[in-house]
Amino acid sequence: MDLGLFIIVTNAWMQHPVGFELLPNGVYEVSSFTQLLLNPWALLEYAHNMCAAVVTASFVMAAVGALYVLQRREGPYAHIFLRLGVTAGIISSVLQVFPTGDIHGKYLAKNQPTAIAAMDGLFHSEKGAP
After folding, report:
1. What backbone phi and psi angles, to 5 degrees, belong to 30?
2. 18: Cβ–Cβ under 8 A, 6 or more apart, which residues?
């Protein structure tokens, strides 16, 4: 398994705790490792994070291909790098925004409206806030 998955699972648990018990001494204890790993926030955050990694890698690949084309290097690699990098970059960029980013934003608005207000710079409650 990927170590990054456990980091994201831990972060998701802090945002949306599942599968735990509060002990009499005030300590939280994981009661279901399965619930912890299958936390809907964790799965969504992991997909969002992996899309971001593919965006970065694909545009680096496209940049190397573009450099090869500009340097007029012979061989098929330049065009393969460029075509594959741009295609994967566009697809992963779309997936980064929708559905992973969109659903995560909806989860956040539903479960943590204060966090959304802080991101929007709304520090005072008011009716019909801008």
Report:
1. -70, 125
2. 32, 35, 36, 39
| Structure letter (DSSP) for residue 53 | H
Per-residue pLDDT of the chain in tens (130 residues, 90 and over written 9): 688 999 999 999 999 999 999 999 999 999 999 999 999 999 999 999 999 999 999 999 999 999 999 999 878 899 999 999 999 999 999 999 999 999 999 999 999 988 888 888 888 877 877 6
* Separation CA 85–CA 55 (nearest Å): 9
Residue 30's beta-bridge partner residues?
20
Report the predicted TM-score, pTM, of the whole model to 2 decimal places.
0.83
Is-contact 64 80, C-beta < 8 A?
Answer: no
The Cβ of residue 3 has, within 10 Å, a number of other Cβ atoms equal to: 7
